[in-house]
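Hi V.,

You were right to ask for the full record rather than a summary. Here it is.
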Amino acid sequence: MTQSRLELAFPQGTPEGKLLFVGAAAGDNLHPLSPETLTVLQRQYADHAGLKARGIEAVTALSGDARFDLAIVRLARAKAAARADIALAAGHLPAGASLWIDGQKTDGVDSILKELRKLAHVDEVTSKAHGKIFRVGIPQGDWIPAEWHAREHEAAPGFVTLPGVFSADGIDPGSALLAQHLPEKLPTRVVDLGAGWGWLSAQALSRAGVSELHLVEADHAAIESARRNITDPRATFHWADARDFRLPDPVNGVIMNPPFHQGRQADPKLGAAFIATAARILTGAGRLWMVANRHLPYEAVLAEYFGQVHEIGGDNRFKVIEATAANRGSAATRKGGRR
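Predicted structure:
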C-alpha cells in the first residue's frame, strides 16, 4: 500500500480502537496508524521479523476470540488467498465496523471490489498509484460466502495445501522433474531450501541413506502444511528465511527449487542467495541438487560457489543441476550468502 492511499483512507489521522492489518510488509510506511493499537497478520518470515523489529505486534494466526474495531486487508495475489484473508478479517469485526480493502489492479482489486459490492455496502472508493482502496461496512449476520473461507486442498494424494502457498493446486512441474533426477541413495543429512508444503522433501525421504532432513520455508502457511504432510521422525521443520538459514554443523546434501519472483517481478538474485546458502551449509564434499527455469542465469553464480557444476537433466522449461565441492571460504559465503 502506498502512503498516499493509506492517508486517504484516514484523513483525520490515527483511527481509534484496535486495528488489524492483514498483509502489511516490513518496509511499509504505516503512517497514520499507531503501533500501540496495531496488530499485523503476516505469514512471511522476513516481513514478520521486520515488523517485530519496528516494535509492531506481528502474528501468524488469530485466536478465535480476537476482536478488533477496524481492519485493513492488503490483497494477496492469489484470488483464493485474497478472499480467505477478507473472510478472516471480517470474522473478527463487529457489525457496523469498517473493513478497508487495498490492492493493486494487477492483483485483482477491481474484481474483488465488484464481488464485495454484491455482498455489503461499499463506499469511499479511491484510486491511486495503479490500485484502489475502499471501505466495506460490516453487515449483520453471516455475509461472507462459505467458499471464501480458507480450506485445505488435497494437492496430491496425502498432501494438503492452503490458499496462497506456492503451487497450492498441485505438484510443481520443476519439483517433479528434480525428484526424477535425485539419486536412489542420498547423503545422510539433507536440507530442502524453500520446502513449500513438503512434496519434494517427502520424495527425498523415500530415498535410501537419509538420516535427517531439514525443511526450510519462509511461508508460515506452507511450512504448517508440510508439518501435516510429513510425519516422518527424520524431518525437522524450520520457519525461516532460506537466505539466512544456518545449522550448527554442515550438512552433506541440499535440494531446492528456489523462487525467482518478488511479487510479480522476476528477481534472479533470490535464487543466487539460495545457492550461496547451500554452499555455506554444505561440507566441502557435499552435493547440491537444484531445478531452475532454463532462462535463469545461475551458472556463473554456481561456478562462484562450487568447484564442479553439471546439468544432469531438463527439458525446454527447466534445467536440473548437480553441484559439488562447495567453496565455503568464498568472500560472499563468509558474508552470509547475501548478494
